[in-house]
Design a protein that fits this description.
Largest interface: A-B, 33 and 28 residues
Largest sheet of chain A: 2 strands, antiparallel
Radius of gyration of chain B: 20 Å
Number of domains of chain A: 1
Structural class of chain B: mainly alpha
CATH topology of chain B: Glycosyltransferase
Distance between the termini of chain B: 53 Å
Low-confidence stretches of chain A: 1-44
Order of helices and strands of chain A: HHEHEEHHHHHHHEEHHHHEH
CATH class of chain B: Mainly Alpha
Largest sheet of chain B: 2 strands, antiparallel
Number of strands of chain A: 6
Oligomer: heterodimer
Number of domains of chain B: 1
Number of strands of chain B: 6
Distance between the termini of chain A: 42 Å
Mean pLDDT of chain B: 89
């Protein structure tokens, strides 16, 4: 029996336990309780957490069917576009019905971060492929919610959606697309801020927040021209960076509670998706940051340092495991983190930040690796369920935010120099 | 086979054929989204008068039911036996609670739902009207549960609306938001509606005689919008909200109020329409919307408002006209001037809103208590006969724009809202009465 087969059996058995796993990274949740499944590596057969599927973020079927045979890693726009569309269209068919849903009693809300990350991918796909299809779906989604966020509070997780709203605003210039986000962000600016060392958590106290919020603030600057949004972004990012960035490894801890934790092999815990969130957050922030922003150099340096660090850790299959420094303890590569890192490196190359010669092979290898996790029907598998730390998951695991990362990566690779043009 | 039985069979047959494809088509996921429905899907008590064919009527019912506005089961069970028409706080309170609690059990789960594919949205007008009823019941009966339910709705939606430039229908939910604001004074409860109304004030206005429709071109709007503006005035003290209200109400009044009949045409397309018996077409719920809207506007209008006398006069004139055509059962038919064309069945949403308007008029000295107390008392007793043992309030016409027929079991959220408004005012009457006795 293959490792994967064994794991599937274990996972099925574990699925019988009704573990209530919260949808990670809500600021209200102490990280200690949001990562219950990864905290006890004592027993060899760790149960995979029961994936959360009733909120419609994704699915984990026992039989996802065969892998795709019609995707190729060729560096041609035609091949890249075909893979992107295959995955994007499968995702639409699976979940479009939940984009424009809010149901308090069923805990459904198409505006929370898992969807926000997917929407960023759809926006990028429409942009790179020159096909308004995905963007139009996003506009319908925004209209349904009247361009409101799911909360008017300061909660980075709920701000990722604003990135899509603001990208649409930058195209459409319809005031209603901007108004609720601006009102919410202005209210945040009017509130007292939390400094490092206070007995309360800083605004972006977990590294995921750097994907969710800063790119929204950067886009709000782009939409308004008002630099107060950048000042806030730079000040808050600096706090998170000084708290969570590890200058030795050039990686981010997921949050302060992880700084002293170690993997089974004694290494520090660095989580594939956590690093992906930060790298992609850097790229998506830099995208809209003015050339003369005082923090620009810091972000660029960080993206370079992190890219170098993760390139060194790239697996032979081109991908990264959920626990970056102890891949042996997490059987499979993890696609959401791999995709977000790949996106950021491709963005870095496309924007002259990363050395094309050094990183093009890394990116190509990663893209080829990701494609081996696409199923015949378009499902993108091996995406870790929501959480806050490295964890196990079933091969068929597909969740919306991972598809978002894949579409971001595909969109940048599609634009890379050297990719053969033409459809 | 009775007329009703025949009708039931027809309705079932039609709903089987119409309902199924409807559900299919709305749930189907075409990746390229279909042409976006307008922010306000055409569900207002319908913009343009429909041809009112049987097929459309049945399709409308299926759609209302699928959108969870209510239901019209073939067997609603027996009628209630535990209600008394006595105008005492105990009896009125019991009836209000029975219906309110049944409605909550049926539909609270849909208060905080938006689902584009299924066309669900707890912020649209049918729900807003229900919410006004819950707010009234919470206050008069001192029922914290109803108020808590409304607080939850506001919070779930972040006190937001369906649009930043809302139609009357889409601002109606803010009546509840604003009533909560008036006691809570939490800025977030008022922010989105204030922005929206300010947007409307900043936008160009449509005058009568223009080729465009005026803001409140259908009489239902007078329930949905003016009470919202009046509450915004109460919340802010800014008279600009009242000026707008008075100016726009005057346009609608000029367009739709019939000075002979002292009733409102539903919209301009109805002015020349006739019932089968040749009478003008006046719709029970349409008159109810205006009566309810007048009362709920006057409630927050400053005493010295220049238009106040006009609204009071209109409430008196309409109350006079409606009292004259009150049915023997205390209620009003969907087609007010041709009950026979609608099977001589009373319609409860219109009856409840009309009763609310009259009871408010009595309680606030606008209507002569001696003349109208018997009218209201008869109407209340009549409505109670349409309550089922489980708390269902029946004989509520589905959404529409004109008189229509419906099944006896038909129960919809806005009709319950009207009933709770009426019950709350009658509860106040009963309290005053019992205080007098002591």
């Amino acid at each position: 029996m293959s490792d994967r087969g064994k794991f599937a059996l274990l996972a099925v058995a574990a699925g019988a336990f009704a573990l209530a796993i919260p949808a990670h990274s809500s600021p209200a949740q102490p990280p200690a309780t949001s990562a219950p499944a990864t905290e006890a590596p004592a027993t060899p057969a760790r149960p995979a957490p029961r994936p959360q599927v009733d909120r419609k973020f994704g699915s984990v079927p026992d039989d996802p069917g065969p892998l795709a045979t019609d995707v190729t890693p060729a560096m041609t726009q035609k091949a890249i576009a075909a893979a992107m569309r295959k995955v994007a269209d499968w995702q639409l068919a699976q979940s479009q019905q939940y984009f424009a849903v809010f149901d308090r009693s069923r805990q459904l809300d198409g505006r929370i971060w898992t969807w926000g990350a997917l929407y960023s991918g759809f926006m990028a796909a429409s942009d790179s492929l020159g096909d308004p299809k995905y963007r139009n779906v996003m506009r319908d989604m925004g209209k349904t919610y009247n361009w409101e966020l799911s909360t008017t509070e300061s909660d980075a997780n709920q701000h990722s959606l604003a990135q899509t709203y603001l990208e649409l605003y930058l195209l459409d210039k319809q005031p209603e697309e901007l108004a609720p986000t601006k009102a919410t962000f202005d209210a945040i600016l009017a509130r007292p801020r939390i400094e490092l060392g206070a007995n309360r958590r800083i605004e972006w106290w977990w590294c995921d927040a750097l994907f969710m919020a800063p790119p929204a603030w950067a886009r709000l600057y782009a939409a308004t021209g008002d630099k107060k949004y950048l000042t806030y972004l730079d000040e808050e990012w600096a706090k998170t960076s000084s708290q969570l960035y590890d200058p030795a490894t050039h990686l981010y801890f997921r949050d302060a509670s992880f700084i002293t934790k170690t993997e089974k092999n004694g290494q520090k815990i660095f989580w594939s998706r956590g690093e992906g969130w930060v790298m992609a957050g850097l790229a998506r922030t830099l995208e809209y940051l003015p050339k003369d922003d005082p923090a620009r150099a810091t972000y660029e340096t960080q993206l370079k340092e992190m890219s170098a660090a993760v390139a060194k850790l790239q697996g032979p299959d081109g991908l990264w495991h959920s626990g970056m420094l102890d891949p042996a303890d997490y059987d499979q590569p993890e696609i959401s983190g791999s995709a977000l890192m790949t996106f950021a490196m491709a963005w870095g190359v496309n924007n002259g930040l990363l050395d094309r010669k050094v990183y093009t092979p890394v990116i190509q290898k990663a893209w080829a690796g990701m494609l081996t996790h696409v199923y015949a029907d378009g499902r993108l598998g091996d995406i870790q369920q929501t959480g806050s730390a490295p964890a196990l998951f079933k091969p068929s695991s597909s969740f919306n935010y991972g598809v978002g990362g894949f579409l971001l990566a595909g969109s940048e690779i599609y634009k890379m120099k050297g990719v053969k043009h033409g459809k | 086979m009775s007329v009703w039985q025949k009708f039931g069979v027809l309705a079932i047959a039609a709903s089987v054929s119409l309902f199924a494809p409807f559900v299919q088509s709305t749930l189907a996921q075409s990746p390229a989204a279909p042409a976006a429905p307008p922010a306000t899907p055409g569900l207002t008590d319908t913009p343009v008068a429909p041809p009112n064919t049987e097929a459309m009527r049945v399709a409308g019912i299926a759609k209302d039911n699928s959108r969870m506005f209510g239901s019209s089961p073939d067997d609603p069970g027996p009628l209630a036996k535990d209600l008394s028409p006595a105008i005492t706080p105990a009896a009125v309170g019991a009836a209000v609670r029975k219906v309110a609690d049944w409605q909550l059990a049926q539909s609270q789960q849909y208060f905080t739902v938006i689902d584009r594919a299924r066309q669900l949205d707890g912020r649209i007008w049918t729900w807003s009207v229900l919410y006004t009823g819950y707010m009234a019941a919470a206050t008069t009966l001192g029922e914290g549960r109803y108020r808590d339910a409304m607080e939850q709705v506001g919070k779930a939606y972040n006190w937001g609306l369906r649009s930043n430039l809302p139609s009357g229908d889409d601002m109606s939910i803010a009546q509840m938001y604003l009533e909560l604001y008036l006691t809570d004074k939490q800025p977030e409860e008022i922010a989105p509606i204030q922005t929206a109304l300010n947007n409307i004030l900043a936008a160009p206005r449509v005058e009568l005689g223009s080729s465009q429709k005026i803001a409140w071109w259908w009489c239902d709007a007078l329930f949905m919008a003016p009470p919202t503006w009046a509450r915004m005035y109460a919340a802010t003290g800014d008279p600009k909200y009242i000026s707008y209200l008075d100016e726009e109400f005057a346009k609608t009044n000029t367009l739709l109020y019939d000075p002979q009949a002292h009733l409102y045409s539903r919209d301009a397309s109805f002015i020349d329409k006739k019932e089968p018996n040749g009478q003008k077409m006046f719709w029970s719920r349409g008159e109810g919307w205006v009566m309810g809207g007048l009362a709920r506007t006057l409630e927050y209008l400053p005493k010295d408002d220049p238009a106040r006398a006009k609204y009071e006069t209109q409430l008196k004139e309409m109350a006079g006209a409606l009292a004259k055509i009150q049915g023997k059962d205390g209620l009003w038919s969907s087609g007010l001037l041709d009950p026979a064309a609608y099977n001589n069945v009373p319609e409860i949403s219109g009856s409840a809103l009309i009763t609310f308007g009259m009871a408010w008029g009595i309680n606030n000295g606008v209507l002569d208590a001696k003349v109208y107390t018997p009218v209201v008392t008869r109407a209340w007793a009549g409505m109670l006969k349409h309550i089922y043992a489980d708390g269902r309030l029946g004989d509520i016409q589905q959404t529409g724009a004109a008189p229509s027929t419906f099944k006896p079991s038909a129960s919809y959220n806005y009709g319950v809202g009207g009933f709770l408004l009426a019950g709350s005012e009658i509860y106040k009457m009963s309290e005053a009465k019992s205080a007098k006795k002591k």
